[in-house]
Amino acid sequence: MKTLVGFGDADSFYASAEVVRRPWLRGLAVGVLGNQGACVIARNYPMKRHGVKVGEPIWEAKKKCPTGVYVKRDFRWYETLSRKMLAEAGLFSQKIEYYSIDEFFWEGSATRGRTFRQTAEDIREHVKLSTGLPMTVAFARTRTLAKLFADTAKPYGAVAVEDADHETEILAKLPVTEIAGIARGSAAKLEPHGIKTCLDLRQASGLLVRRLLTVTGHDIWRELNGYRVTPIRTTRTPHKMLSRGGSLAGRVKDAYTLYGWLVRNVERLIEELQFHEVRPSTLTVAVSYFDADSATGVANLCVPSARFDVLLDAAKRGLRRAWRPGRVATHMHLIASGLKRGPWQQSLFDPADPKRDAVARAKRTINDLLGRWKLRSGATLFANDWYDDPANEHEVCDVRGKFCF
């Protein structure tokens, strides 16, 4: 039985998710705002037609689209719909990959008595009926082609490209920058060699592509030529590193506030380490500044650990090296690397501490029961404004199982 790679991508996912729970928004221009409500992180097609761009400040967006409705993001709700989409699309294939919060790959065949194009339409309609979300669905010979052709069919499209001649017709019309993984920098390297369209890239020498774009670019070239380089991955591959952090919700100059954010990110990182059952050997603290170059501080752990006191001590050492006194910080990331999986050898200098371990267990149990951050370190009070907003209890990077993040 013939199989192709299927790809589903929800149209304007965050904005569409808001319409699902607020039906009165249907037909209106909708923009979704970030943590502090200061910039647009997503918008639907009616708002796109007003020229509003992702990352645009709210005050600029309102000038372009004064009649638009702007709502603050809610990643907990988006995850709920995301997993619902995954379940519904999974009814059409036993091999489905949770690629991102609104994108899915699967290996599938046409439904009995239906063509691949009709099957794509069936999946699209089923997801819309069961979740309320509009989705574009494409079938093609490889992942790269399926995603590329889906992008050309948006919004709410359904397409199946089954042979090389049909591919040639479409690829000849598309610039190489339409391919996921080929940005302007890569396009600039290709252009002197006459490679401007997706078809040009497919017909180029593989040796030339590898020299210009390394192995990653060569894999894209192979996929354009119909070779399935990356299989459908039904479970996420083990992490090589874990990271937590992001914006500091403004500009931070005060050392105590910066320390509060450090502790917050340590607690978030420990959640991930415990979930994935790994312990890091190295912790890196990276801080970005508004008025200075970014800086990093690396701290090595004597023994791989996921204990709060051990990681906080390492994080403080890293922050001392990354901190630029008097400068204004805007972002912070904690990166755990050298991940080890059990069993772990207990350090001679790290004896068991029943009281400490009992406190850690109680903290985790209460937070699992009552919600994140109901119990947290007192040091996070220095960054307390963040916790006052319940929308900040859940973030897109906390949606586990995806290949992105």
Q: Which key phrases capture this entry?
A:
alpha+beta, 14 strands, Dna Ligase, domain 1, 405 residues, 13 helices, four-stranded antiparallel β-sheet, five-stranded mixed β-sheet
Percent of residues in beta strands? 15-25%
What would the average pLDDT be, to the nearest integer?
Answer: 92
- The level 1 CATH classification of one domain is Alpha Beta
Alpha-carbon Rg, integer: 24 Å
CATH fold-type name of one domain? Dna Ligase, domain 1
| Through-space gap between termini | 34 Å
- By CATH, the architecture of one domain is named 2-Layer Sandwich
Order of helix and strand elements from N to C terminus:
EHEEHHEHEEHEHEHHHHEHEEEHEEH
| Overall 3D shape | globular
Biggest sheet strand order reads 5-6-1-7-8
Total of helices: 13
Major sheet: 5 strands, mixed
Helix coverage percent: 25-40%
What is the tally of beta strands? 14
